[in-house]
């Protein structure tokens, strides 16, 4: 627990109503969406404005109290689990859309705004914010920025980092700074905006963000391509991109995923095929028609057994929703669900899918594979039971091999979930010792007392979490 002096100072800043160190409240914020990670914070604080955030950080820095900024807790790499105790900072009061600027095509928000609420607000103005993480109904913009969240539309439109053009942040010493602006160009100094996006709460606390918007697409259409061969489906992804077509969405679902999603959503998904590609294109009607015709031809050349076009927007939305519910559907299979992500160059998707299947068979596990195949990001998801220690050891070894294969194919250990605590032991595989040292230097420069989300990104014992079988 916090010493009384710290507790009194924090209460003086946020008031008693916004400070809670009861066991119940601490338990609620002791974990996020990551299985098998839990640690109790010492207290939970809810600042009402940027100045209060600044004052809280000054106190925490003075007394070297860890602080973990937290959105909705949908994190999948234990990034918001307070593994070293300290303070969990909530943004339930800082949840306003401050401005929608139709002249500059921007929206300015506080970190606690729910992603989908903001998307709906800008769409009412005929504008479009493309990043669409599967958790967007409950995730917050602050969380999206800290994790550099992606989504189904990432192939064509990019990820959160591509839309963050300005930030207000509080440094660990309490200083408030602003980066970027409503600018198309800005090369004045280091690009701190991009540095802070995806920094997982280890450098600063984000208190305001200005995001780029674009015009709404004129129209969109959705297609399902069905395959009886996994490799053919994966090769289709590479072939579509190689033909210089960039769909809005190009998602891959294998048969085990299809079966559990259909059992959950009951929308008529085919479950008698080995894989499907969910493909969407948007833009002017003539472009959408042309691209989907070409994509259908490519898929048929790559052995697709059937091509289906959604007959209505309602049907298309049902397909998108079904894809977004994949994790929830798989979670019904066993008590523990481990959703991972590994990313490879798009040309290596077929090899990565093959490797995942071989590793699944080798370790005799239940792994469903789906993901954003168009940008090389796959989500092998294991249904298991944390109480079965022998099986969990096999799960750990299997995922270590999956990450190893991804790196060998020119990929990375995470495309959108982040490093947090879950992937920290593997980060050195990707960056090598020199890369880790460079990142630690940046961390120390901003946060010499290591109060910002400590225990994340940098593992205490790199490369030794499991023994990898070559």
From TrEMBL:
Needed co-factor(s): FAD
Keyword terms: FAD, Flavoprotein, Oxidoreductase
SUPFAM superfamilies: FAD-binding/transporter-associated domain-like, FAD-linked oxidases, C-terminal domain
Pfam families referenced in this protein's UniProt entry, alphabetically: FAD-oxidase_C, FAD_binding_4
EC number: 1.-.-.-
Gene Ontology MF annotations: oxidoreductase activity
Keyword Oxidoreductase belongs to the record: yes
Domain FAD-binding PCMH-type: 37-216
Listed NCBIfam families: glcD (TIGR00387)
UniProt name for this protein: FAD-linked oxidoreductase
Species: Neobacillus rhizosphaerae
Lineage of producing organism: Bacteria, Bacillati, Bacillota, Bacilli, Bacillales
């Amino acid at each position: 627990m916090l010493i009384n002096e710290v507790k009194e100072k924090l209460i003086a800043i946020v008031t008693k109503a916004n400070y809670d160190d009861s066991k119940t409240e601490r338990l609620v914020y002791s974990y996020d969406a990551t299985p098998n990670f839990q640690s109790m914070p010492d207290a939970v604080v809810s600042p009402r404005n940027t100045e209060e955030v600044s004052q809280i950080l000054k106190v925490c820095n003075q007394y070297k109290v860890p602080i973990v900024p937290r959105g909705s807790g949908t994190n999948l790499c234990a990034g918001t689990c307070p593994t070293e105790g300290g303070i969990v900072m909530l943004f339930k009061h800082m949840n306003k859309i401050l401005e929608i600027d139709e002249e500059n095509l921007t929206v300015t928000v506080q970190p606690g705004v729910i992603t989908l609420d903001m998307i709906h607000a800008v769409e009412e103005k005929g504008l479009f914010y493309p990043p669409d993480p599967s958790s967007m109904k409950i995730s917050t913009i602050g969380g999206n920025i800290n994790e550099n969240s992606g989504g189904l539309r990432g192939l064509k439109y990019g990820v959160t980092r591509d839309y963050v053009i300005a930030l207000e942040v509080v440094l660990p010493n309490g200083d408030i700074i602003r980066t970027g602006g409503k600018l198309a160009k800005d090369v004045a100094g280091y690009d701190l905006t991009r540095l802070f996006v995806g920094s997982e709460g280890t450098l600063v606390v984000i208190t305001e963000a200005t995001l780029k918007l674009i015009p709404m697409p004129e129209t969109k259409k959705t297609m399902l391509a069905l395959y009886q061969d996994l490799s053919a489906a994966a090769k289709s992804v590479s072939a579509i991109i190689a033909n210089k077509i960039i769909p809005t969405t190009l998602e891959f679902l294998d048969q085990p995923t299809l079966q559990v999603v259909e059992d959950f959503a009951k929308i008529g998904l085919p479950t008698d095929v080995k894989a499907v590609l969910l493909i969407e294109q948007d833009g002017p009607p003539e472009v959408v028609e042309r691209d989907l015709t070409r994509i259908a031809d490519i898929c048929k050349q790559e052995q697709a057994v059937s091509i289906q076009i959604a007959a209505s927007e309602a049907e298309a939305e049902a397909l998108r929703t079904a894809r977004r519910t994949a994790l929830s559907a798989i979670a019904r299979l066993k008590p523990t669900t481990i959703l991972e992500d590994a990313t490879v160059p798009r040309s290596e998707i077929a090899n990565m899918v093959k490797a995942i299947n071989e590793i699944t068979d080798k370790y005799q596990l239940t792994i469903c594979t789906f993901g954003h195949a168009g940008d090389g990001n796959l989500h092998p998801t294991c249904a298991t039971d944390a109480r079965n220690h022998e099986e969990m050891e096999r799960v750990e070894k299997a995922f270590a091999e999956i990450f190893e294969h991804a790196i060998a194919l020119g990929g990375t250990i995470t495309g959108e979930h982040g490093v947090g605590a879950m992937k920290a032991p593997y980060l050195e595989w990707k960056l090598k010792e020199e890369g880790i040292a460079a990142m630690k230097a940046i961390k120390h420069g901003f946060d010499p007392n290591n109060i910002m989300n400590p225990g994340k990104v940098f593992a205490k014992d790199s490369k030794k979490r499991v023994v990898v079988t070559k």
